[in-house]
Design goal:
The structure is a single chain. By secondary structure, the protein is an alpha+beta fold. It folds into two domains: 211 residues, no CATH class; 124 residues, Jelly Rolls (Sandwich). 30% of the residues lie in helices and 20% in strands. Strands 1-2-3-5-4 form a five-stranded mixed beta sheet, covered by helices on one side. It has a five-stranded mixed beta sheet with strand order 6-8-13-10-11, with helices on one face. The protein has a four-stranded antiparallel beta sheet with strand order 7-14-9-12, with no helix packed on it.
Length: 471
């Protein structure tokens, strides 16, 4: 309804301005204007000089508290006609794309500050306007960069600007713009939040507010194809960034299972993750961060004395059923993901007529998981599966076993017990006559001396040795 109501005024503004502004608008609600003659030539020079400037995300390799290069000044600008302090810039000839991005940004802004009750993105003191810029060469992605810290706020606050790949169109563009808006809000309220967590929470909120985003499955497929990776870990490559956005599945799952209202879990964690840093510090304080808030909030919630490990373990178990086999106990909405929601198996082996031993195919980062499928073909009636696992002394591995039917649905799950600081675990899985397969899952819960923190520059992986036998 909002988009339909705003379209006439938006296009009237476009028709009244054949050439859009090359200079910064005086206010967020200022109409699109045109420059001519010498001003246009000067703007061309500025755009040319700035075209080679590549701003660097300050949160790479630790959160810098210093501002980055200001946003590139494009030659086309359009500002909100709905009263939001918001403008979109783009290269000459991109008027239609700029207006399309503005419509998406306006809608995301309205939902974020309205239905989701989130604070609006911070705006620089110089302009009072949040800017989204359409630029080439971003590989179909969106970026959010720090513009300045708030020198007056009691807690860490920051303003940001967004960049979106100019080649995007349709739902992909709308989703990228929405992610930029939500990540800018995260950067404004909790600027010490790691890049991976910003990407995950931004993607989660985008899925909530943009219906077509559920059909953009590349991030989800990448996340499920790389189960051994740590949750919320980002990186330099496009693959790593897609996996970080795909980790939004954790917030999708947690919000559906424990949230009081859509988006409430993320809103609460952002509010409670405020940090304080000296104004002359080069890096922001990392504590508390979102993971600290989640750990405290979920302590004892799942069961008596349950911890963050138990929450991650339950989520890891739910990942096995994402996609077509999802139900109310896992994440029902993931059925829309179809095959993209299927988890990648590390091993798939036949029933062990003789004992078999395997080394983990790849090491597991903290919160990373490994799945081993054991088929029941050839197993005798009444047979049982003996499972013995071993791992390094300073690692913490948690194990579960799942009985699956012929369609891949989970019939029953079994938690493999292990005492604190154990380096091995054993279990015998019984009553398998109605099952078509057994899936064994290992999760790295991190080191004893260093609990999982996505802000860590190095996340140490660990492996395991698995023995299975027929009983």
């Amino acid at each position: 309804m909002h988009a339909a109501a705003s379209r006439p005024s938006l296009w009237h503004a476009a028709l009244l301005t054949v050439a859009l502004a090359t200079t910064r608008p005086a206010a967020a609600h200022a109409p699109v204007t045109a420059e001519a003659g010498a001003d246009a030539a000067a703007a061309t020079d500025v755009a040319t000089n700035d075209a080679g400037v590549q701003a660097v995300d300050p949160w790479e390799q630790g959160a810098s508290a210093l501002p980055v290069v200001p946003l590139t000044r494009g030659s086309v600008v359009a500002c909100s006609t709905r009263g939001h302090p918001l403008c979109v810039r783009g290269p000459r000839g991109s008027e239609a794309r700029v207006l399309g991005a503005l419509r998406a940004a306006d809608e995301a802004w309205a939902i974020a500050t309205g239905a989701l009750r989130l604070p609006r993105p911070g705006t620089p003191l110089e302009t009072g306007t949040f800017e989204v810029e359409l630029v080439d060469g971003l590989g179909g992605e969106a970026q959010v960069v720090l513009v300045e810290r708030d020198p007056l706020a009691s807690f860490d606050r920051a303003t940001a600007g967004g960049r979106v790949d100019a080649s995007l169109d349709g739902c992909a563009r709308d989703a990228a713009v929405s992610r930029a808006i939500f990540e800018a809000i995260a950067l404004g309220t909790a600027p010490a939040t790691s890049e991976g967590l910003r990407a995950s929470t931004g993607e989660h909120l985008t899925r909530l507010t943009l219906p077509c985003a559920i059909a953009l499955l590349d991030d989800t497929a990448t996340f499920q194809a790389l189960p051994s990776r740590a949750l919320f870990r980002s990186g330099e490559s496009a693959l790593e960034r897609r996996a970080a956005r795909g980790a939004a599945a954790f917030f999708d799952w947690a919000d559906s299972r424990f949230g009081r209202e859509p988006g409430g879990l993320v809103r609460a964690t952002w509010a409670l993750a405020a940090t304080k840093t000296a104004h002359d510090a080069a890096r922001l304080s990392w504590n508390p961060d979102l993971i600290d808030v989640v750990e405290t909030s979920f302590r004892g919630v799942l069961s008596v004395n349950s911890t963050l490990d138990d929450l991650f373990l339950r989520f890891a178990a739910s990942r096995l059923t994402f996609g077509s086999n999802a139900d109310e106990a896992t994440l029902l909405t993931s059925r829309a993901w179809g095959d993209a929601g299927k988890i990648a198996l590390d091993l798939s082996v036949d029933w062990p007529l003789v004992p078999r031993r395997f080394l983990s195919p790849r090491p597991l980062e903290p919160t990373g998981v490994s799945f081993v499928r054991v088929g029941r073909q050839g197993a005798a009636k009444g047979s049982r599966l003996r499972v013995e696992a071993e791992w390094e002394e300073h690692a913490r591995l948690r194990w579960m076993a799942f009985k699956l039917d012929g369609s891949g649905r989970v019939l029953q799950s079994v938690l493999v017990p292990a005492v604190p600081r154990a380096t091995s675990a054993q279990v015998t899985v019984t009553e398998l006559d109605g099952a078509q397969a057994v899936v064994l899952m290992a999760m790295n819960a991190g080191d004893h001396a260093r609990p999982f923190d996505p802000d860590d520059a190095v996340l140490e992986p660990h492996g395991y040795l698995l023995t299975i036998a027929n009983e």
